[in-house]
DNA sequence: TGAGTGTGGTAGC
DNA sequence: AATCGCTACCACACTCA
């Protein structure tokens, strides 16, 4: 170890000269937070009395600055290897903390001593991390110290991912033989399902690649070609990616046997099949059983499983090659596919590039092949790619395109044209259009009439080798193009529930999943959509595919939230409430999708507002607390729990969890109450209190326990009884006077509407009956009163119509009564 | 006429 | 044993004021 002596540098002698106050004041916000964290951290260690807080920290601060300067002077050969990187070392490491500190600082990096403030640390170095800490630091880049050592040795910054600290659990846990399927009622369902879902992986990879593109862009703004510039586009794509990679990983020769990648043996989707399998007519997306039947007698079809890790690894190497090539833009399309853009290149230059890439990729992926299409526009590159497959490349020049090129392309080869549009187009004229050569003959107007304005235009341009404006955005406004605009989760497999409560729990878990992602993005949402898949009438309860969704009717409903939010309570409650409004009997549900539609950046003043962890604050030596407290106060820095819980009063939390509609009302009520408190009209006050009480009780009925983690309980007898009690008192109290107040009545009506919207007509019926009985009982004395007549009107004009309107659904609702325990 | 909603289609393997 | 049918985004038809 180098000869640094910390004690030597301690400017203890100076301590009396520095007024304590000015020291605190002299620190930046970050510095202050660090100071507090440090103080709290060191509190447990035996420091001795001679060390007072001011000196201690001042020492530390000065010492560190000095150290860093010295390190750099002594060792810094001007290396900027770690420039822009700031590391934090956690726990015991080899080499040790001090050595790492030295290495990083000497090479232009920053060394952070405390993890007090998020965002200041780019990497965490650790050799071993206990599970708890791992969870706590999950959002950081955590890698082993060898990353630093090796990077210095190599003289270049190595990818930290290669040194990522794997959890002990990951390593120790033995690979279990196929685990049984976890039911959708089980908390681990989502995790297990996603871990095996190819589509989930494809979607996630795509999002990650897009996010990475944006980050890259932010770091180093790319040169975007001008719209008038001539560009060359390379569209590069693996040949049957999953099949190739799985085959290579399992030692199969991709050319020798027909291979498919799938889970099962019968009604399982084929994610990918090699060209050998395609010779027999097998296609991606087919069921395995169908494919097996297409094989000639005696010929075997090889079935391989998914190896998502391997797919990811191969993709990483693929993209690495593209990034290392001299493209101006590398645009991610999917895990195995990218579009690369350069300025004008000659034909032979293009050829050189295509060959180079194909060879490089094959070298690093155990012989997997990519095909490349190259042309002067996105669409030409893509069409050329189609023609080049498999295992080839094609460079096309717009002017030199012959009829052969077009006649070999199918309508579905056009980007954005799938099965549905292809059918529409081919059937639009007689004889049916079969290839792009024929489609080129179609007039722009007919095309637009056939497939719509935009798509008609797009296709018209596409068959002439030109991109439409929308597709161009990928090149000319890539950041906007790859920016995420929504966030959602879809589950349409394995969904089999019996009760509404199980669905509530499931919705809670989905919501939590989304919120975690939302917070990672530092965003909030202001519009939600719930989409469900409901078994179509007359469809079998269990479809051919095991736990599949079968034929379903999709239904969607969206909600606007007044204020963008990332609160679990608000969102989960809203979704659960929306689910009820869609009237799907629990057993008929086959799929759920939840979307966050309008994403907004978390308000910057809120996001950046520094805060001190309450725990840390509590740990401070008591003599400093008050002083620190004052300083924090002065700077408007909050003390709060680390898991930010912004709701502090019971009432607020309660309101947060109400569905928006009701929330608005309750908030309004509270607003009125506050006003009333000022004007002190006792009578009104009483009325409002009563009304509010009634509302709150009504909400308790909806929400049951107020803990967000508990399932919503609808059968809470006590609460419903309370509501009835309230209503009855209300009727009693107003029957002999002027009748119900209009405002009260409106609230009451909304409550009834809510009940009927959420399939609880029996409750409405019960309220109806009780009121009717009450009126009957009172008719002898009060039938002449205004109030009596008003109530009769309510019964006949408001409540009964609701029941009648829903008569047709009453039958099904009846069946659900058991669930609602009325 | 413009804004908002729900539906449908497509893309990747 | 089966089986893991996701998810972001655009365009359109429709409704409402």
Outline of this structure?
This protein is an alpha/beta fold and 822 residues long. The chain has 4 domains: 6-171, BRCT domain (Rossmann fold); 188-401 and 465-477, Alpha-Beta Plaits, CATH 3.30.70; 484-606, DNA polymerase, Y-family, little finger domain (Dna Ligase, domain 1), CATH 3.30.1490.100; 651-820.
Secondary structure elements and their pairing?
Blueprint: H1 6-9, H2 20-26, H3 29-43, H4 53-75, E1 86-89, H5 97-106, E2 110-111, E3 123-125, H6 131-136, E4 141-143, H7 146-154, H8 168-172, H9 189-196, H10 198-219, E5 232-238, H11 241-249, E6 259-261, E7 272-273, H12 275-278, H13 288-294, E8 302-304, H14 308-324, E9 329-334, E10 337-342, H15 347-364, E11 370-375, H16 378-388, E12 393-395, H17 403-407, H18 419-426, H19 436-439, H20 444-451, H21 453-462, H22 469-476, H23 478-482, E13 487-491, H24 500-520, E14 523-535, E15 552-565, H25 568-581, E16 589-596, E17 599-601, H26 604-608, E18 611-613, H27 614-619, H28 622-634, E19 638-640, H29 650-656, H30 660-679, H31 682-703, H32 717-735, H33 742-757, H34 761-782, H35 786-805, H36 807-820
Parallel strand pairs: 1-2, 1-3, 3-4, 6-8, 11-12, 18-19
Antiparallel strand pairs: 5-10, 5-11, 6-7, 9-10, 13-16, 14-15, 14-16, 14-17
Helix pairs in contact: 14-15, 20-21, 24-25, 30-31, 31-32, 32-34, 33-35, 34-35
The protein binds a DNA duplex (13 and 17 nucleotides) through α9, α10, α11, β7 and α18.
């Amino acid at each position: 170890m180098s000869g640094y002596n910390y004690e030597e540098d301690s400017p203890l002698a100076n301590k009396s000269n520095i007024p304590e106050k000015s020291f605190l004041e002299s620190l930046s916000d970050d510095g202050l937070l660090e100071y507090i964290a440090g103080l709290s951290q060191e509190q447990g260690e035996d420091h001795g009395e001679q060390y007072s807080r001011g000196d201690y920290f001042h020492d530390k601060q000065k010492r560190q600055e000095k150290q860093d300067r010295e390190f750099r002077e002594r060792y810094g050969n001007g290396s900027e290897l770690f420039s822009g990187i700031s590391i934090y070392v956690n726990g015991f490491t080899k080499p040790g903390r001090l050595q790492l500190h030295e290495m990083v600082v000497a090479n232009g990096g920053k060394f952070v001593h405390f993890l007090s403030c998020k965002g200041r640390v780019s990497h965490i170095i650790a050799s071993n991390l206990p599970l708890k800490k791992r969870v706590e630091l999950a959002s950081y880049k955590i890698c082993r110290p060898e990353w630093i050592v090796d990077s210095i040795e190599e003289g270049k910054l190595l990818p930290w991912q290669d040194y990522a600290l794997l959890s002990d659990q990951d390593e120790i846990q033995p690979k279990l033989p196929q685990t049984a399927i976890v039911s959708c009622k089980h908390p681990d369902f989502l995790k297990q399902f996603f871990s095996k879902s190819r589509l989930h992986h494809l979607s996630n990879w795509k999002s990650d690649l897009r996010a990475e593109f944006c980050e890259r862009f932010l770091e180093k703004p790319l040169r975007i070609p001008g719209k008038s510039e001539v560009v060359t586009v390379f569209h590069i794509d693996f040949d049957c990616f999953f099949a190739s990679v799985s085959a290579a990983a399992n030692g199969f020769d991709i050319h020798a046997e027909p291979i498919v990648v799938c889970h099962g043996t019968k009604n399982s989707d084929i994610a990918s099949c090699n060209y050998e399998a395609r010779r027999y007519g097998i296609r991606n997306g087919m069921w395995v059983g169908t494919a097996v039947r297409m094989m000639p007698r005696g010929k075997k079809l090889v079935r391989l499983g998914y190896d998502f890790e391997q797919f990811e690894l191969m993709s990483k190497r693929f993209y690495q090659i593209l990034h290392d090539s001299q493209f101006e833009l590398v645009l991610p399309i999917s895990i195995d596919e990218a579009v690369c853009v350069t300025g004008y290149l000659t034909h032979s230059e293009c050829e050189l590039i295509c060959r180079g890439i194909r060879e490089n990729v094959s070298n690093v992926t155990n012989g997997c092949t990519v095909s490349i299409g190259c042309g002067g526009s996105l669409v030409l590159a893509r069409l050329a790619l189609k023609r080049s497959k498999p295992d080839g490349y094609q460079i096309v020049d717009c002017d030199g395109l012959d009829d052969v090129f077009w006649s070999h392309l199918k309508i579905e080869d056009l980007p954005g044209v799938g099965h549905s549009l292809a059918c529409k187009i081919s059937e639009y004229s007689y004889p049916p259009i079969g290839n792009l050569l024929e489609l080129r003959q179609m007039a722009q107007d007919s095309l637009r009439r056939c497939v719509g304005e935009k798509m008609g235009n797009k296709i018209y341009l596409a068959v002439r080798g030109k991109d439409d404006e929308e597709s161009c955005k990928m090149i000319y406004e890539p950041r906007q193009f790859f920016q995420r605009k929504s966030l959602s989760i879809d589950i349409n497999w394995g969904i089999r529930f019996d009760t509404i409560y199980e669905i509530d729990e499931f919705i809670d878990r989905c919501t939590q999943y989304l919120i975690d992602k939302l917070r990672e993005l530092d965003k909030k949402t202001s519009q939600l959509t719930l989409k469900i898949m409901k078994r179509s009438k007359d469809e079998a309860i269990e479809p051919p595919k095991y736990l599949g969704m079968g034929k379903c009717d999709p239904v969607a409903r969206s909600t606007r939230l007044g204020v963008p939010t990332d609160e679990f309570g608000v969102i989960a409650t809203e979704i659960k409430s929306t689910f009820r409004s869609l009237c799907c009997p629990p057993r008929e549900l086959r799929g759920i999708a939840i979307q966050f539609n309008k994403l907004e950046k978390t308000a910057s003043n809120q996001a950046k507002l520094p805060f001190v962890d309450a725990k840390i604050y509590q740990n401070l030596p008591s003599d400093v607390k008050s002083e620190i407290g004052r300083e924090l106060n002065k700077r408007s820095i909050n003390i709060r729990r680390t898991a930010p819980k912004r709701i502090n009063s019971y009432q607020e939390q309660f309101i947060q969890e109400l569905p928006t509609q009701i929330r608005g009302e309750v908030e309004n009520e509270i607003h009125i109450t506050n006003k009333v408190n000022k004007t002190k009209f006792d009578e009104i006050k009483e009325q409002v209190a009563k009304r509010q009480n009634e509302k709150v009780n009504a909400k308790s009925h909806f929400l049951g326990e107020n803990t967000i983690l508990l399932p919503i309980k609808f059968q809470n007898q006590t609460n419903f009884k309370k509501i009835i009690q309230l209503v009855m008192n209300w009727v009693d109290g107003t029957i002999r006077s002027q009748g119900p107040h209009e405002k009260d009545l409106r609230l009451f009506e909304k409550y009834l509407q809510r009940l009927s919207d959420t399939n609880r007509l029996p409750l409405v019926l019960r309220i109806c009956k009780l009121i009717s009985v009450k009126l009957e009982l009172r008719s002898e004395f009060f039938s002449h009163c205004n109030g009596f007549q008003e109530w009769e009107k309510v019964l006949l004009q408001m409540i009964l119509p609701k029941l009648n309107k829903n008569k047709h659904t009453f039958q099904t609702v009846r069946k659900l009564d058991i669930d609602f325990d009325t």
